[in-house]
């Protein structure tokens, strides 16, 4: 018995086989599915049953990235400005609890990203394509999964695409506010008078447009390297202040209260999550097998990120205690030259990071355009880049207090994209080989994702109320990087 399903591609699944074995794949003439750009597709090749297909040998990239370049991008994506909120997170959890809880959150985020890429590698071989986007993986997994998932393949694809776009485009707008706010503070201190924050945001338009013109991830790698160096310098100066004249560890609680722990969880999840760049990074690798593995790019990168998060959170809270602010840079003395240099370095690092966040948005919209307009050229691509950057800056100019609203969107999107959806994709990909252990593990992860969604939404709503009614300010809310411009 054969069952045929029509989505963006036609899949013929043999229900008698053990597992969702793909018998054939036929891309229709009017199909809009586009796993990867045409010069990287190797579909319908050696289709005879039994032929071995190695998707990584078939991958044809014009500008592939090395392991080191991919690691650089991953570090930049994960070591965002959210790290500056880790001392506040430890204030909500306590010193010792914060260490173990940060490791747990890191494990969840890393495992879900690892699972997504692992499922993608399995689906490459089943569908005989060399690479897929996050949305493609979701669609193909659901189209070839159990009966309950097959009717949702197209909806899942579109949901992933728009959740990614809204989250990362909103992040781009917030980044402009963060950069402008830091320079505004320094300008006011040195010049003795204030300029409207909107003026600083508008000044960023041309530099950000030029940054967006970097053609691909290969050429963006040096920018990420510069960003990492700037962030390292800024964090190094910050560590200098936090390690100076530290109080005794006994002066800080080792365990926080249950009331504030959800805030820790939200701060850490949304600071460490980088699910949106995982598939673009893997798709552009020269040696994609090296992305996974015990000492693969993903594990090495996230392991290093976790150590830095723990160190800054621990020592930052130990140093400033209950006086810890939403961003550790706000605790640094503005009159010190070193502290000013830290703010400049971190602001420039955020500026450089804008390009990596923007790349996610660009690929989503550009793919849509190419699906519907066959005559699109690189000229149109650069027009799109200009329009998207301009829109992100205009939104920031119109609503400089956009941070809490994007925090609400991030709480909703990252909980689903970073935890829940990868788990569902794993169920759909290996649905005929599901074990009790896999079921228990994934149920726990789904519960964690739902908790992140609920607590993140509640705390983000509290931030919105605080932004427009300071009297209602919440002491320990999910500020992460998003409330930094408001606090400053």
From TrEMBL:
Domain (Amino acid transporter transmembrane): residue spans on this chain: 64-460
Pfam families listed in its UniProt record: Aa_trans
Coarse class of the protein's main subcellular location: membrane
Localization per record: Membrane
Gene Ontology molecular functions: L-amino acid transmembrane transporter activity
Organism: Aphis gossypii (Cotton aphid)
GO cellular component terms listed in the entry, alphabetical order: vacuolar membrane
Membrane topology: Multi-pass membrane protein
Chain ranges passing through the membrane: 95-117, 160-183, 195-214, 219-241, 261-279, 291-317, 337-362, 382-399, 405-431, 443-468
The protein's name in its UniProt record: Amino acid transporter transmembrane domain-containing protein
UniProt entry tagged with the keyword Chaperone: no
Keywords: Membrane, Transmembrane, Transmembrane helix
Upper classification of the organism: Eukaryota, Metazoa, Ecdysozoa, Arthropoda, Hexapoda
